[in-house]
Design a protein that fits this description.
Layout: H1 3-6, E1 15-20, H2 26-38, E2 42-48, H3 52-62, E3 66-68, H4 71-76, E4 82-85, H5 92-101, E5 105-109, H6 116-129, E6 133-136, H7 143-153, E7 160-168, H8 173-178, H9 188-191, H10 195-211, E8 215-224, E9 236-243, E10 248-254, E11 262-269, E12 272-278, E13 284-290, H11 293-299, H12 301-306, E14 311-313, E15 326-331, H13 337-350, H14 358-377, E16 381-382, H15 388-392, H16 398-401
Parallel strand pairs: 1-2, 1-4, 2-3, 4-5, 5-6, 7-10
Antiparallel strand pairs: 7-11, 8-9, 8-16, 9-10, 11-12, 12-13, 13-15, 14-15
Helix pairs in contact: 2-13, 5-6, 6-14, 7-10, 10-14
Length: about 400
């Protein structure tokens, strides 16, 4: 009997999970799995880390049944149907390939892998094995991101023409690297990059999720290592791009801010604009000015249900050329770890590609790699950088062959 057939999961049975890597990022993953174990949706079978004491501590804390030191051993366990990879970035690909060989479904922390060439390997291996590959880009699963998506889908902004995000924080990467064996984060060969690659990649994923058409080209980019003077990774990144829809995008991911964090997003369209602030571990405020508010909000049940606690406000500086009313939403913060794990299990059971798939993770990484090239070569970079359609086309039905039943 093939490995794939042996590891099919009955649709109503809890799915056996191995968490691979028990460092700091694993803890919110473990807490998500705790909730799913309590709900009868999952079993936490294995905690894996090269430090056995740390693996055992995680297993004891979160209810794991066993602890091991090698991911190769974890993926061979027959009681494991899926893995959640929380390793240093350079180990993502080897762990994904090992899981695919054993017919195990994969949820992998962002960035999916180090490079686009590695992304092709990861996607192909999981595609040919017929297993789900999902990128843990949690930002798109958080309440603010879902609210923005509903606003766009409801047509409140019309045809989008500008998507601007400024994400700035004070991240002392040197102090971070000095503790908990995190020095790998300063090395390009291990981390892949700095601010844009490590943090920017999953906010880019959210922008691609919102805008929907994909990137046509990157016009230019600038990087530097301001403040921390790191030798191999950037601490500030600034990218100008054009979407396939014709919209212009500007994205900035900065670690060298000398003050409290800033996250500001503006999406402008033919019928109005949206501004979002916050949503870095705190409440988000979303303000929408739209010519469509009067009928859309009252007439579209999707909007009414989603925004039960919203309110309207009239600008004090009313102007005849401006929209005279705004929809203001206060969106409480909730980390997206649990929600992404719910989606991962649903994709396994339903035999489908997940939201935030391996391909989605690759497309976000494509923007990062394209930006690096644009800065290095001082020219525009046309997309796509890989033939993603050809990569996925030959075996579209393979995930269905792994359908839980």
């Amino acid at each position: 009997m093939s490995t794939a057939k042996k590891n099919r999961t009955p649709s109503q049975e809890p799915i056996g999970i191995a968490v691979i890597g028990c460092g700091s990022i694993s803890h919110p993953h473990f807490r998500g799995w705790e909730r799913l174990v309590e709900a009868g949706q999952a079993r936490l079978e294995v905690a894996c880390d090269n430090d056995l004491a740390r693996a055992r501590a995680a297993a004891e804390r979160y209810g794991g049944k066993s602890a091991v030191t090698a991911f190769e051993e974890a993926v061979r366990r027959p009681e494991v149907q899926a893995v959640d990879i929380c390793l240093p970035h350079a180990l993502h690909l080897p762990a994904i390939l090992a899981a695919a060989r054993e017919g195990k479904h994969v949820l992998c922390e962002k960035p999916l892998v180090l490079t686009l060439d590695e992304a092709v390997q990861a996607i192909r291996a999981c595609h040919e094995a017929g297993v789900v590959l999902m990128t843990a880009d949690r930002d798109r699963f958080e309440p603010h991101a879902r609210a923005v998506k509903r606003i766009l889908d409801a047509g409140l902004l019309g045809q989008v023409n500008l998507v601007l995000e400024r994400h700035m924080l004070h991240k002392n990467v040197l102090a971070q690297a000095a503790r908990d064996n995190m020095g790998w984060k300063l090395k390009r060969s291990m981390a892949g990059g700095g601010a844009l690659h490590r943090d920017g990649v999953y906010y880019i994923d959210t922008l691609l999720f919102w805008e929907g058409s994909g990137v046509k080209h990157i016009t230019g980019a600038e990087f530097d290592n301001f403040l921390w003077e790191t030798q191999e990774i950037e601490t500030t990144s600034h990218v100008l791009l054009r979407y396939n829809s014709g919209a212009i995008g500007v994205f900035e991911m900065v670690w060298c801010l000398q003050g409290p964090h800033i996250r500001e997003i503006v999406i402008n369209g033919s019928e109005g604009y949206l501004k979002l602030t916050g949503a870095i571990g705190d409440e988000a405020t979303i303000t929408v000015h739209s010519k469509q508010l009067a009928w859309q909000v009252l007439g579209d049940p999707r909007v009414v249900r989603a925004f039960e606690e919203c309110y309207f406000q009239r600008p004090q500086d009313a102007h005849p050329d401006r929209v005279g009313e705004a929809l203001v939403l206060r969106v409480p913060y909730a980390a997206g770890f649990h929600a992404q794990e719910v989606e991962f299990l649903a994709a396994i059971r339903e035999g489908r590609q997940p939201e935030s798939s391996g391909l989605d993770g690759a497309r976000a990484l494509e923007v990062v790699e394209g930006a690096y090239r644009a800065a290095q070569e001082r020219r525009a970079i046309d997309f796509p950088l890989r033939d993603w359609d050809a990569l996925m086309a030959p075996k579209q039905a393979r995930v269905a062959s792994r359908r839980a039943r």
